[in-house]
Amino acid sequence: MAEKILVVEDERTLRETLQYNLQRQGYEVLTASDGLQAIKVARKERPDLILLDLMLPQIDGLEVCRVLRQEMALPILMLTARVDEVDKVVGLEVGADDYMTKPFSMRELMARVKALLRRERLIREKLAAESDSDEMPDTASRAPLEYGDLTVDLARHEVSRAGEPLPLKPKEYELLAFLARHKGIVLSRDLILERVWGWSYGGGSRTVDVHVRWLREKIERDPANPERIITVRGVGYRFEG
Ligand code: CA
Questions:
Q1: 10 Cα to the center of ligand 1, angstroms
Q2: Which one of 13, 28, 57, 161 has the lowest number of neighbouring Cβ atoms within 10 Å?
């Protein structure tokens, strides 16, 4: 089945050019020309990726991104003519997965779209394979995971550091266990939120950042310069053990 891409752009010519080029690549393309419509279409159609213009009528792209981030896990590629907004776009505040500044090359854009969709697919495949195989009984028989002086015992739900039990709040533990099981893989905030907190949770992806900060206080040698839970700019986190 073709992957579904939502193109949100108020400039008609650019919107149609994007639509044309994406369709030629075999994607199913939905379009929206303002922020409100974008949110409505995304909720109804659940696209696999959103190309989101920053400057939009009604609700701007930053707000659209914020709203959708709290509701669904999907890659968002922001299009912006404003270089001064780039930090905000890819930073913690909004958390787009990637961005391109206008004017951009169509070929480069297609490459980014493809890369984002592939990354998302790989993560989902890995997670699906895992929930089939090692989530329940196998986890229980598994040896504790060791990372230097840190031990994560998934079977006993225990974490210790240098042999001393490390008291963690339940969500801190679940977050650490989730990160540890996916060592070396970049995990987006949405995906972490979805897997650790669940879809029904209404708190938004900032929750993830807060818990990562708490965890770092407990498991990092220097929480200000983390070596275990690495921030991946504009995406999320990677556990290095
Ligand atoms: Ca615009």
A1: 5
A2: 13
Q: Which two tokens stand for residue 188?
A: 């987006």
- Provide the residue range defining the domain that includes 62: 4-123
Q: Report pLDDT digits (tens) over 24-55.
A: 999 999 999 999 999 999 999 999 999 999 99
On whether both 116 and 8 belong to a single domain, the answer is yes
Q: Which of 124, 36, 39, 37 is CA-nearest to residue 76?
A: 39
Residue 233 falls inside a structural domain: yes
Say if 185 falls within a structural domain: yes
Give the distance (Å) from ligand 1 centre to CA of residue 238: 33
Q: Which residue has the higher pLDDT, 101 or 82?
A: 101
pTM summary value:
0.61
Are 108 and 147 part of one and the same domain?
no
Handedness of CA 138, 139, 145, 151 (dihedral sign): negative
Domain presence at residue 210:
yes
Q: 55 forms bridges with which residues in the sheet?
A: none
At 187, the pLDDT band (50, 70, 90 cuts) reads: confident
Q: Is residue 132 part of a domain?
A: no
User: What 3-state DSSP class applies to 35?
Assistant: helix
Ligand 1 center–CA 16 separation, angstroms:
13
Question: If you measure from the C-alpha of residue 231 to the centroid of ligand 1, how many angstroms do you get, rounded to a whole number?
Answer: 30
Could you tell me the distance, in angstroms and rounded to a whole number, from the CA of residue 180 to the centre of ligand 1? 41
Please report the pLDDT score of residue 232 as a whole number. Answer: 86
Residues with Cβ within 5 Å of ion ligand 1? 10, 53, 55
